[in-house]
Each structure stands twice: as C-alpha cells, then as structure tokens.
Design goal:
With 175 residues, the chain is mainly alpha-helical. Helix content is 73%, strand content 0%. The protein has 6 helices and no strands. Helix 2 packs across helix 3, helix 3 crosses helix 4 and helix 5 crosses helix 6.
C-alpha cells in the first residue's frame, strides 16, 4: 500500500522558511506572555491608556489636520506651548499655515472640478434623453418612473442612480 500524497503543489523553500520564522516568533511571544503575565487591573489600565491615546490622536487630527497635510504637522501644531518645542514655535506655525492654505486651495480646486464634471454629466444626459423625457412626460409619467426606466437596461449604461436622474428631471421640468 502506497502512502497518499498531499494535494496541490509542493510548498516553495521561501514559504517553508517563512512558516518556520513565524513559528519561531510565535514561540518567543508565548514564552514572553508566560513570563510577563499581566493582572486584570494592569491590563485594564493599559487598555484605558491606549484608548485615551486613540481619542487624543483623533481629537488632534479633527482640530488641526486638512487632507494633504502631513499628520506630523498637525501633531506639532497641537504641541505648541510645550517646553519640548520651545524656540520652534514660529517655524511650526509657518509650516502649519502653509500646509493649511495649500489644503484650502486643493479642496477648492477639487470642489470646482467635481462640480464641473457633474454639470457636464448632467448636460450630456439631458441632451441625450431630452426627447424621450418630453415624450414620457406627455404620457403622464412621473419623474420616478422616468428615472427608473432610464436606469434599466438597455438605457441604464450611464451608471447613475435613480435619485440623481429624478433630481435632474425635476430641474429639467422646472426650466
């Protein structure tokens, strides 16, 4: 009787080595956990500390951080008044103001480009479907029914939501 082989391709040397390394790391962690066990009180204090640090970080980022800015700049701005940054306050404020103004500019440009792209999509949609919308409106169709019809195949190749199309149709009817 022959021994059955394992299914699939044999593991590579790199995979076997990585598994051995992970096993060694797991063994070291288990040994450390056995030697340095924490009491329930110590574990609770450690978890409370970690949670408070997470809340502190979230608060700093909500107060000082804008999207293209590095997080370190926000942390530096939050640390003003601390003796560890004495003498560097002006540098930190200058860097923060530069990053903040850049963030405002980037957001403004992004908002304008998004609005422009949305307007272009709306204009293209209305140009393409104006005749059909007029015909459906003459038949007494509601905005919702028209929007659902436009979203169904074969017309629904635009990838727009029913709500967006319904809103555009309402604006078209108001003109």
């Amino acid at each position: 009787m022959t021994a059955t082989r394992k299914r699939g391709r044999p593991r590579s040397v790199a995979t076997i080595q990585r598994e051995n390394e992970l096993a060694e790391i797991e063994k070291v962690l288990q040994d450390a956990a056995a030697r340095c066990s924490m009491s329930c009180k110590d574990r609770k204090e450690m978890n409370d500390l970690i949670e408070s640090l997470d809340r502190w970080e979230a608060q700093i980022l909500s107060d000082y951080h804008l999207s293209p800015m590095r997080k370190e700049t926000a942390y530096a701005m939050a640390s003003l008044g601390d003796e560890s940054v004495a003498g560097y306050e002006e540098v930190i404020i200058t860097e923060y103001e530069k990053a903040k103004s850049l963030g405002v500019k980037v957001r403004t440009v992004g908002t304008k480009s998004s609005a422009s792209a949305a307007k272009d999509r709306k204009d293209q949609f209305l140009k393409e479907y104006a005749g059909a919308i007029d015909g459906w409106l003459k038949q007494g169709w509601s905005n919702s029914r028209i929007a659902k019809r436009v979203c169904k195949p074969p017309l629904g190749k635009l990838g727009l939501s029913v709500r967006t199309i319904r809103r555009w149709i309402a604006e078209y009817r108001a003109k």
